[in-house]
Amino acid sequence: MKKHILVIPGDGIGPEVTTWGKAVLEEIAAQYNHEFTFDEALMGHAGIEATGNPLPDETLEKAKASDAILFGAIGHIKYDNDPSAKVRPEQGLLKIRKELGLYANLRPIMLFDELLDASSLKPEVLRGTDILFFRELTGDVYFGEKTRSEDRNTASDLMIYHRYEVERIAKKAFEAAQVRGKRLCSVDKANVLESSRLWREVVQELAKQYPDVETEHMFIDNAAMQLVKNPKKFDVVLTANLFGDILTDEASQIAGSMGMLASASIGDGTGFFEPIHGSAHDIAGQDKANPLASILSVALMLEISFGLKDEAKKITDAIDKTLKDGYRTGDIADANTDKAKILGTQAMGQKVLEYLKG
Ligand code: IPM
Ligand code: MG
């Protein structure tokens, strides 16, 4: 198979982790006789530094011309502490999501048994958890109109959804539920928000077309609680952009660490694959970041964008073996971890490659 992949390392730990995602793609290409070609582009703070634009035109052009995109992370501490900054790294990510029509963000909560003790939650609560989040990605308060009064003392972000936006992601979530556990939980705040009442109405109507899927509706506050109380009760979770952003960070603790979660953003065209973690400037450049989320993002790319299921499984198996043999990055190490097996980013990436090579 011939594919052209754009790598956008981004900011902070992004470049360190995407290096390993790319290395794994190269190894898979060699083993399975695929021809993967690569290009690289700037986004976020890196884009601002080079061109003044968090999503340089060239990056967008390259993105549209590629078959899939591997992205690292975005953000810089400088902007986090400066709410008045007009140009912000995150604008690059939001713009590329909108421009590429990436309306569905899939975030699987995959649990490696070996990491049950790495979570702050009890292993017996976690064991057996397998959740697939469908987070809407191009609507909501993220993209609704923003205002600030002249005296700067009043601000608003419009929470807005159109029927078609809810419909298209709900369809994808129902279809996924049909081939998984056949349960779908739609999360909203319909007891308060009009946009959530539209959301619920649309999901209720669609549910009739999927009688084989057991559909449930849950308020976001309750869902946030249920997720840590009994995560096993969830199969597919469908939710809006902001709720999904928050819930999936919470859910990452089920998998032991933010450093373990990959995501796929899909929609009208090129798929976009990235860890759910941020740029983690506190550890950037120190060889401490966990590269597994980037490597797992590559597995999602192979499976979802290219339909290469065996290749994707080969990667998750290699990670499984790496963990089974006791290797950990700092974020997923626990009191029982052999100190000699706590690895940096590079060594962890190398280990996965070794297991991939068999
Ligand atoms: C995510 C991130 C982004 C979001 C930020 C960096 C804009 O938190 O992908 O979850 O809020 O969508
Ligand atoms: Mg987030």
Automatic annotation (TrEMBL):
EC identifiers of the protein: 1.1.1.85
Its pathway is: Amino-acid biosynthesis; L-leucine biosynthesis; L-leucine from 3-methyl-2-oxobutanoate: step 3/4
Please give the superkingdom of this protein's source.
Bacteria
Record InterPro entries:
IsoCit/isopropylmalate_DH_CS, IsoPropMal-DH-like_dom, Isopropylmalate_DH
Q: Where is the Isopropylmalate dehydrogenase-like domain?
A: 4-352
Which major enzyme category is it?
Answer: oxidoreductase
Q: Where is this site: Important for catalysis?
A: 142, 189
Q: Which SMART domains match?
A: Iso_dh
Q: What's one GO-annotated cellular component?
A: cytosol
Spell out the molecular function terms from Gene Ontology: 3-isopropylmalate dehydrogenase activity; magnesium ion binding; NAD binding
Cofactor binding: number and manner: Binds 1 Mg(2+) or Mn(2+) ion per subunit.
What keywords tag this UniProt record? Answer: Amino-acid biosynthesis, Branched-chain amino acid biosynthesis, Cytoplasm, Leucine biosynthesis, Magnesium, Manganese, Metal-binding, NAD, Oxidoreductase
UniProt record, GO biological process: L-leucine biosynthetic process
Q: Where in the cell is it found?
A: Cytoplasm
**Which cofactors is this protein said to need?**
Mn(2+); Mg(2+)
- What does the record note on quaternary structure? Homodimer.
What is the documented function of this protein?
Catalyzes the oxidation of 3-carboxy-2-hydroxy-4-methylpentanoate (3-isopropylmalate) to 3-carboxy-4-methyl-2-oxopentanoate. The product decarboxylates to 4-methyl-2 oxopentanoate.
The similarity comment for this entry is: Belongs to the isocitrate and isopropylmalate dehydrogenases family. LeuB type 1 subfamily.
- Name recorded for this polypeptide: 3-isopropylmalate dehydrogenase
